[in-house]
Design a protein that fits this description.
The protein is mainly β. The protein has two helices and nine strands. The chain has two domains: 87 residues, Chitinase A, domain 3 (Roll), CATH 3.10.50; 48 residues, Beta Barrel (Thrombin, subunit H). The protein binds zinc ion. Zinc ion binds next to loops.
Length: 160
């Protein structure tokens, strides 16, 4: 079956950076299950998979614009510790959800100086070219319930 909108697709993938270092991989684990056309994957990878068949393998390099975006200096913010109250001790590496003009975004604490905290709302993979090796394991129609929930049920997906 061919990958097109509303198909449930299982893939094995390895994601590498420009230097060939592995950032993420499903190798040795369960394949990743997603629904095509629902923004479950970065757009460049979804685009490259459109029309592929089960069993096929692709290698694709995704530019930041179709990956996790360009680095945005405006997403580096310094805020007083008290604005993050209720979180206990603030430490580097902690993450907070915050409302921005573009909706909810995950911020990572990148520094703590006295009463001020530096937050970075850029995705860790922002500005990076993503090199994917993908093997299409299987393709099937999504159920009505899966389309309603926007995620895959059963093997490789949510279990509920
Ligand atoms: Zn569900």
């Amino acid at each position: 079956m061919e990958i097109s909108a509303d198909k449930v697709v299982l893939i094995h993938y390895t994601l590498k950076d420009d230097a060939g270092g592995v950032i993420d991989s499903s190798a040795g684990g369960e394949p990743l299950a997603y629904i095509q056309g629902h923004g479950n994957l970065v757009s460049g990878l979804e685009k490259a998979l459109e029309g592929k068949q089960d069993g096929s393998s692709i290698a694709v390099s995704v530019q930041p614009a179709e990956g996790y975006g360009e680095f945005d200096q405006a997403l580096i913010q310094r805020v007083p510790k008290r604005s993050l109250q209720g979180s206990g001790e603030i430490k580097k590496g902690m993450q907070f959800q915050a409302q921005t003009a573009d909706g909810m975004r995950l911020f990572t604490v990148t520094g703590v100086m006295g009463d001020m905290v530096t937050l970075d709302g850029n995705h860790p993979l922002a500005a990076k070219t993503l090199h994917f090796d993908v093997q299409v394991v299987s393709v099937r129609d999504a159920t009505a319930e899966e389309l309603e929930h926007g995620h895959v049920h059963g093997a490789g997906g949510h279990h509920h």
